[in-house]
Amino acid sequence: MAIQGEVATGGNDSSANGALCLHSYWRSSAAYRVRIGLNLKGLKYDIAPVHLVRGGGEQHAPAFAALNPQELVPVLQHGQRMLRQSLAILEYLDEMWPQPPLLPATARERARVRALAQVVACDIHPLNNLRVLQYLERDWGVPQPERDVWVRHWIEGGFRALEALLTDSASTGEFCEGHQPTIADCCLVPQVYNARRFGVDMAAYPLIERIERHCLTLPAFDAARPERQPDAPG
Amino acid sequence: MAIQGEVATGGNDSSANGALCLHSYWRSSAAYRVRIGLNLKGLKYDIAPVHLVRGGGEQHAPAFAALNPQELVPVLQHGQRMLRQSLAILEYLDEMWPQPPLLPATARERARVRALAQVVACDIHPLNNLRVLQYLERDWGVPQPERDVWVRHWIEGGFRALEALLTDSASTGEFCEGHQPTIADCCLVPQVYNARRFGVDMAAYPLIERIERHCLTLPAFDAARPERQPDAPG
């Protein structure tokens, strides 16, 4: 499936370097980050859906494990190249197709943006991943309500810190950093989606919510939403 | 405490941009990553120890929470700048002091190195952090042996994938990528330290172990070891 994204404004052409194919799952927030990045760059890409639940999870099938021994999505195929880990993929997109940039101009600003992204990608999301919730359920028999408390605990702690970091900085604008979307926004928006899914009260994080709302007015973010994906349930 | 590191070989001079001070804990593997990076760059820096256990954890004191609302180490102070998140800090060091580089030359190689680093920093370490083990103990009463099984589970899964990624690539050399240390090695070595601490059988990961052994022959890695830190127990 080819997604149009922001081709008109981005003006990047990936054809010289081989086709792009994203191994994705509609509700994976790590895949959602990369979809936003691809769309912001105006790149055309195919989506190869990997169903993370059906039949025990297609990510564990030998064919997919050969692409990524971590047995996790996303994987971005670029010609013969196999790119793994969502933040590494976003940096790769930014290096290969510099316009529009996903990182700001100075080392100080880039450090801030990367740190904001990593609050989500290192300290919130990995604790609430499907594989972790499956471990809690299957190995320890933790019932659903307690698993949901666990998920909310890590989101709320991370969001408290994020809200403080965003509030305390003059760099925060319509987006996490200034007035252009960056990899921080690519991480933030999917995490807010997850937060709502698990019943986090977003009223406690007005700045996060304001930035998320603004991001979703952009077609690049909107087209990346889980419910807009070809593998989303009808 | 000023640490000499690799000043002689690195030849970087941070004085023009303000002093460097790392808020660190001897056994924090995220702080350990940054110590390696600072040493590889040959930068002089002070260490401000933050005791993560004593008195409920100094990272939760208002003075430290003001530096980092996540209440986590490391924080790198560079003059008036406050830098958070170990991977973001390593990228900052590489941008501010480019020699010797912590990332390889091409976008493809950099994507591989960042992905290897993130296998550790996103998918292994965050699950085994002190705050997670404290949650399991205090909120759920999970006893020590089961917490140790949990820790080993995530390390072993991550190391299986890392070993495969390292084995399957012609890029792997004495280090994770070729013959120069990168941010992937900065993440790998502290994670192996953690693995041993929790009783992971490293014989299953010969390539990881070989790279770790080689890294630790370098003064920059050796000086960053937990037991060499000013706040390590005597």
From TrEMBL, chains A, B:
Q: What is the superkingdom listed in this entry's lineage?
A: Bacteria
Q: For the GST N-terminal domain, which residue ranges apply?
A: 18-101
**GST C-terminal domain sequence ranges:** 106-234
> What CDD domains does the database record attribute to this sequence?
GST_C_Zeta, GST_N_Zeta
**This protein's record includes keyword Isomerase:** yes
Its cellular-component GO annotations read: cytoplasm
- Among the Pfam families in the record, one is GST_N_3
Q: Name one GO biological process term.
A: L-phenylalanine catabolic process
Q: Which UniProt keywords apply?
A: Isomerase
Give a GO molecular function annotation for the protein. maleylacetoacetate isomerase activity
The record's section on InterPro entries has:
Glutathione-S-Trfase_C-like (IPR010987), Glutathione-S-Trfase_C_sf (IPR036282), Glutathione_S-Trfase (IPR040079), Glutathione_S-Trfase_N (IPR004045), GST_Zeta (IPR005955), GST_Zeta_C (IPR034330), GST_Zeta_N (IPR034333), Thioredoxin-like_sf (IPR036249)
* Signal peptide residues on this chain, from the entry's feature table: none
EC identifiers of the protein: 5.2.1.2
Q: Which residues cross the membrane?
A: none
* NCBIfam families found in the cross-reference section: maiA
Q: Which family does it belong to?
A: Belongs to the GST superfamily. Zeta family.
What is the name of the protein in this document? Maleylacetoacetate isomerase
Report the source organism.
Answer: Luteimonas granuli
Q: What is the lineage of its organism?
A: Bacteria, Pseudomonadati, Pseudomonadota, Gammaproteobacteria, Lysobacterales
